[in-house]
């Protein structure tokens, strides 16, 4: 059974750093892109970027380039999303998702989401 | 880049049929596949249609997708509405290594 299990909710202060995770299981982790999607409170879905764990090829949405870092450790089948200096506007739920065989065919499995709250 | 525009909300009665549209602002809708995701309150999104009109395993055939080149839009049709269909629905397509999401449509089953 394919599963993506994300790390737990985080409460941080502005300026702090954070790294959240997404552990894949039940499939060949290195052969599928993993994407990250943001959902701000009461808002829609926003594409952040993707990583191919097989070779760590990474692509960022222009809206998030330079603001976050996406990485993966294939030895432990885990993808990461990290911030070096959080802002209050980073408060959101962050989802990881496995992309289908074809990059253009969307995501077939999603993590449960990680709530990040940034508040002083 | 292009935008995908969805109606803010739609509603229907149990047993009826509703259609949610997703209009592409520029470029041809048929250029890139369209996916649809369902997001129930407090839950992660799930995929209900991919590649314009393909249903993932486990999604009932009450859900169907299509594209219309004349209106440059994609549509998600849900027939035999059930209360559990009440959710937000998002369309999604692709452009130059980036995904594009529609703004989402809230479906209310009255």
Describe the structure in your own words.
The complex is a heterodimer of chains A (120) and B (110). Chain A is mainly β. Chain A is 0% helix and 51% strand. The radius of gyration of chain A is 14 Å and the shape is globular. Chain B has 110 residues and is mainly β. Chain B contains no helices and ten strands. Chain B has strands at residues 4-5, 9-12, 18-24, 35-39, 46-49, 63-68, 73-78, 87-95, 98-101, 105-109. In chain B, strands 2, 4, 5, 8, 9 and 10 form a six-stranded mixed sheet that branches. Chain B has a four-stranded antiparallel sheet with strand order 1-3-7-6, with no helix packed on it. Chains A and B meet through β5 and β10 of A and β4, β8 and β9 of B.
Draw up the topology in text.
The complex is a heterodimer of chains A (120) and B (110).
Chain A: E1 3-6, E2 10-12, E3 18-25, E4 34-39, E5 45-52, E6 57-60, E7 69-73, E8 78-83, E9 92-99, E10 107-110, E11 114-118
Parallel strand pairs in A: 2-11
Antiparallel strand pairs in A: 1-3, 3-8, 4-5, 4-9, 5-6, 7-8, 9-10, 9-11
Chain B: E1 4-5, E2 9-12, E3 18-24, E4 35-39, E5 46-49, E6 63-68, E7 73-78, E8 87-95, E9 98-101, E10 105-109
Parallel strand pairs in B: 2-10
Antiparallel strand pairs in B: 1-3, 3-7, 4-5, 4-8, 6-7, 8-9, 8-10
Give the helix/strand class of chain B. Answer: mainly beta
Quaternary structure state of the chains depicted = heterodimer
Order of helices and strands of chain A: EEEEEEEEEEE
| Main β sheet profile of chain B | 6 strands, mixed
The number of helical runs of chain B is 0
**Unreliable stretches of chain A, pLDDT < 50, 5 or more residues?**
none
Rg from alpha-carbon coordinates of chain B: 13 Å
The class by helix and strand makeup of chain A works out as mainly beta
Whole-Å distance between the termini of chain A?
40 Å
Count of runs of 4 or more consecutive helical residues of chain A = 0
Q: Strand fraction band of chain A?
A: over 45%
Helical proportion of chain A, percent range:
under 10%
Low-confidence stretches of chain B: none
The overall average pLDDT of chain B, rounded, is: 96
